[in-house]
Amino acid sequence: MSDDPHPLCQGPDPNPIEPNFDVPAGAIDCHAHIFGPDARYEFSPKRGYTPPQASLESFLGLHKVLGGISRAVLTQPSVYGTDNSCMLDAADQMDGKFLAVAAVAADITDKELEALHDRRVRGVRINLVDKGGMPFEDINAVRKFTERIKHLGWHLEVLIHVQEFDDLRATMNAMAVPVSVGHLGYMKTSNDISHPGFRDFLDLVRDGNCWVKLSGSYRITTQEKPPYADVTPYARAIIDANEDRVIWGTDWPHPWVFGHMPNDGALMSQLTDWAPEAAVRQKILVDNPIALFGFEP
Fold it and tell me: What is the mean pLDDT of the chain?
């Protein structure tokens, strides 16, 4: 057994296939990462893994295959801690087509927040799952911090296991800004859909201040390969709870995935099972992300 505390992750499938539906014009990929080059962007020593190199050029090539996606939201990964340089440098090259969700230290100044806004940051990410992702003392400190970003029109993105989070609904509704929850709530499908934590999560979504990313289905499935039929009831329950508060993301390049690496086209094709109606997919892929992130229509 390796004693490496930062195990190297495999890269994405290099041959993505086209999705099985017509992707609407203006579709937005709301969750992805750029990694490297390693010589330029230093990883955090507190990280829990070492990701594959994943360039902006490769990411744009993927989007061409996935129906010509032209806009995205890059999300700060835990491996870079609160150094957002890699992500922001990539976004700078995209002339407003890319926005970003940053990780920040608790003592960040208002001037530094304004500087991040100028570089198209539109939210702050708190990762309570992976090492190095939580720079705040506790969730109450996060709540107080959201008062500081409210005037910027930002939101708070959280990576949590919803079934393990006490008082989820009350805690997230107390935030001063909208909240986005990643990876369908990050509850394994080995937990029944009737789990009290997941029901509380659905109630939170119904309340209207919480958004959900339909990303990383392979992180919650108990099955080896797509289409991950066991995820479908959970995704549909989230959409049924509030179809105006659901967005989608590739989670490219899929760090910390072991075993079978799913194809990005197969992952996107899950949307036809989760949201059979084209009008609902229009909301998930275009209208809802415009509302949350502030993209131009």
Answer: 95
Contacts of 241 (CB under 8 A, 6+ apart): 202, 203, 205, 206
Has residue 21 been placed in a domain? Answer: no
Asked, for residue 3, whether it belongs to a domain, the answer is no
Rg for the chain (alpha carbons), in Å?
18
The parent domain of residue 143 ranges over 28-293
- Asked whether 162 and 196 are in contact (CB, 8 A), the reply is no
Enter the pTM of the model.
0.96
33: helix, strand or coil: coil
Residue 271: what are its φ and ψ, rounded to 5°?
A: -60, -30
In a domain, 170, yes or no: yes
| pLDDT tens sequence across 60-90 | 999 999 999 999 999 999 899 999 999 999 9
Average pLDDT over residues 78-105: 96
Does residue 130 carry a catalytic annotation? no
CATH number, domain with residue 117:
3.20.20.140
pLDDT digits 0-9 by tens, 15-67: 999 999 999 999 999 999 999 999 999 999 989 899 999 999 999 999 999 99
Which of 13, 29, 251, 287 is an active site residue?
A: 251
Q: How many CB atoms are located within 10 Å of the residue 188 CB?
A: 14
Q: In this structure, is residue 5 part of a structural domain? A: no
pLDDT at 123: 98
* The total number of structural domains that make up the chain: 1
